[in-house]
Amino acid sequence: MTATPEKDQVRIFDTTLRDGEQSPGASMTLEEKLQIAEILDDMGVDIIEAGFPIASNGDFEAVSEIAKRSKNSVIAGLARAIHTDIDRCGDAVKHAEKGRIHTFVSTSPIHLQFQMNKTEDQVLDIITDTVTRSRNLIDDVEWSAMDATRTPIDYLCRCVEAAIKCGATTINLPDTVGYATPDEYKEMFVQIRERVPNSDKAIFSVHCHDDLGLAVANSLAGVAGGARQIECTINGLGERAGNASLEEIVMAIRTRGDILPYMTQIDPSFLVRASKMVAGASGFAVQYNKAIVGKNAFAHESGIHQDGMLKNAETYEIMRPEDVGVKATSLVMGKHSGRHAFRDKLRELGFELGDNALQDAFRRFKDLADRKKHVYDEDIEALVEDEINVLGEGAKVIALTVIAGTGGPQKAILTMDVGGQHVTKEATGDGPVDATFNAIKAIVPHEATLSLYQVHAVTEGTDAQAEVSVRLEADGRIATGKGADTDTLVASARAYVSAMNKLALRQQTSNPGALAAV
Ligand code: KIV
Ligand code: ZN
C-alpha cells in the first residue's frame, strides 16, 4: 500500500528482537530469531531492530545473519553512545541491503546525575561525537534521547538539534519508563518539531513502554503530534510491562481510518501467526483476552452476542478475524489421512519439513489421530512446532509411565534416547510433574533450575492437546522449550527436554565441551 494525499505513511519499526528479547526470561535462539525476522520482513515491517550487537557474540551473529537474509526491511542494530558499540553495530548491519545504526544516550536530569554522572554540555558533546561517528559508517542513522519524556523541553530541543546537525535521519523520543500521558506526549513532538531548526530533515519516532498501560495510546498521540515512525513489538513483549504492541497499533490505524488519517504497509493477515511464533520462542504466552491476537479476541460466548453475530457479524465485530489471520477452526485430518495429505496440510499451514522431520511428524500425527477424536489445524501446528523444537538436538523422550493419585509419592518411569542409547530410570516426586522432571534429571543429571512451567489447551475438550512451556536457567543462561501431547505429562517431559537441549546447545556454543551436564 502506498500513501495517498489523505493518508500519511507511518513506518513500523519492530523491536521484538531487541527491546522484546531484553525482557527477563525472553531470550531466543538464533534459529528462532531468524524465523521471527523472516515473518516480520514478509508482513511488511519497515525497520527490524535485530539486536544489540555489542551485547554478546550471539547478538552480533543474529544481527549479521538477519542483515544478510533481509529482503525488504531495513535492518537496525542498537548501540550505546560509545565508539566500540557503534563500530560493532556498523560491522553487523553492513551486511544488509538497507542497514541502520540506532544509537542512544540518556538526556533526563535523573539519568545524567545518577546513571551517567555527566553535565548537560558533556552529553551534547557525546551526541555530536557519536552521531558523527555513526554517519561516517552508514547513511541511515537513528538517534534516541533515552528518557526523553522526563527531559526539560529546552534541553531536549538542543539535543535534537545537535543530532540532526550531525546527520541523524531519524529522531526517536522514547517514553522509556512509561510515564507520559497521551496529551503530554503529543505536545512534546509538536514543540520539538516547531522549535528545532531543520526538524523537517529528520523523521520523528515514538517508542513507548506500557508501565501505565498507555503505550499504544501514547504512540498514536505521538503520531498525531507529527511522528511518522512507531517502535513496537509483537505481543507487546518488552522490558517490565512491555512495549507498545505492533498488532494493536496496526489494527487501530487500519480500523479507525476515519479519524486516524495514516496507513502502514503491514499485511495484517500475518499478525496471529507472528504472535504465536513470538509466544513460542519467548515462552511468554499470550493472555486469552489480549486485543487482536488473544484466543478470545474473536470469541462470542453470550447468547445475545451470538444471536447478533449470526444476523450480521458487524453487530459485535469491528474487525474480521480473517483480516488478522484467524482461521475458522476446521476439522481437517483423521487417522485415515495419508502422508501426502499430511504434507499438503503442513504446506497450507506454512511448514516445509525435510524428509526425516516429516517422517517423525507424520508418525506423531498418526499416534495423535488414534488417541484424539478430532484433529484440528491447531493440533497439527502444535505437534509440528514441537517437532521443530527437538530437531537435531540431543536427548528425546521415548516412553513415559506415571503412577499418580491421592496416595503419593507419585512415580515416573521414563525412557529417553540419549546420544542414540535408550536409558530407563524411575523417580518419585511431589506430584506427577515433579516425578517426571526428577526422572529426566536421573537420566541426564544437571544443575539447571526451573523458572517457568505453563500449560495451555490447544483446542477445546478433554481430549485436547496440552501445550506446555518450560523455562530452565543455568549459569545465567535461559532456554525455553515447548511440548505438545494429549497427555499433559508427556507434553511436560517433551517441553523440559527441549529446554534442556537448547540450554546444552547454548553452553556448548559458548564453551565447547560443556554439553554433558547442563
Ligand atoms: O526505552 C528506551 O528508551 C529504549 C531506547 C534504547 C531506545 O529502548
Ligand atoms: Zn525501550
Automatic annotation (TrEMBL):
Q: Give the start-end ranges of region Regulatory domain.
A: 396-518
Which reactions appear under catalytic activity for this entry?
3-methyl-2-oxobutanoate + acetyl-CoA + H2O = (2S)-2-isopropylmalate + CoA + H(+)
Name the PROSITE patterns on file: AIPM_HOMOCIT_SYNTH_1, AIPM_HOMOCIT_SYNTH_2, PYR_CT
| Enzyme class per UniProt | transferase
What's an example of a GO molecular-function annotation for this chain? 2-isopropylmalate synthase activity
Question: Which biological pathway?
Answer: Amino-acid biosynthesis; L-leucine biosynthesis; L-leucine from 3-methyl-2-oxobutanoate: step 1/4
Q: Origin, by domain of life?
A: Bacteria
Which residues does the record give as Mn(2+) binding sites? 19, 207, 209, 243
GO-annotated biological processes: L-leucine biosynthetic process
EC number, as in UniProt: 2.3.3.13
The cofactor(s) it depends on are: Mn(2+)
Query: What residue stretches are annotated with the Pyruvate carboxyltransferase domain?
Result: 10-272
Q: Quote the Gene3D superfamilies the UniProt record gives.
A: 1.10.238.260, 3.30.160.270, Aldolase class I
What keywords are annotated for this sequence in UniProt? Acyltransferase, Amino-acid biosynthesis, Branched-chain amino acid biosynthesis, Cytoplasm, Leucine biosynthesis, Manganese, Metal-binding, Transferase
Q: Which InterPro entries match?
A: 2-IPM_HCS-like, 2-isopropylmalate_synth_dimer, AIPM/Hcit_synth_CS, Aldolase_TIM, LeuA/HCS_post-cat, LeuA_allosteric_dom_sf, LeuA_bact_synth, PYR_CT
One GO cellular component from the entry? cytosol
Q: What does this protein do?
A: Catalyzes the condensation of the acetyl group of acetyl-CoA with 3-methyl-2-oxobutanoate (2-ketoisovalerate) to form 3-carboxy-3-hydroxy-4-methylpentanoate (2-isopropylmalate).
Q: How does it assemble?
A: Homodimer.
What family is this?
Answer: Belongs to the alpha-IPM synthase/homocitrate synthase family. LeuA type 1 subfamily.
What's the protein here called? 2-isopropylmalate synthase
Organism of this sequence: Roseibium aggregatum
